[in-house]
Amino acid sequence: MRLEKCWFCSSTVYPGHGVQFVRNDAKIFRFCRSKCHKNFKMKRNPRKVKWTKAYRRLHGKDMTQDSTFEFERKRNRPERYDRNLTENTLKAIKKIDKVRATREAKYIERRMTGKKAKELREAQKELEQNISLVKAPALLKEDPSLTLPIKVKVSQKQPEVQLMEE
Amino acid sequence: MGGKCPHRKVKKRRLSHKTDRRAKFLVKGDDMVYDELRKTDEERKSLPLDEDLPGMGQYYCIHCDRYFANVAVRDEHFKTKRHKKRLKQMMGPAPHTQLDADLAGGMGMPDNGPKLMSV
Question: Does the entry feature the keyword Plastid, yes or no (chain B) (predicted)?
Answer without folding.
Answer: no
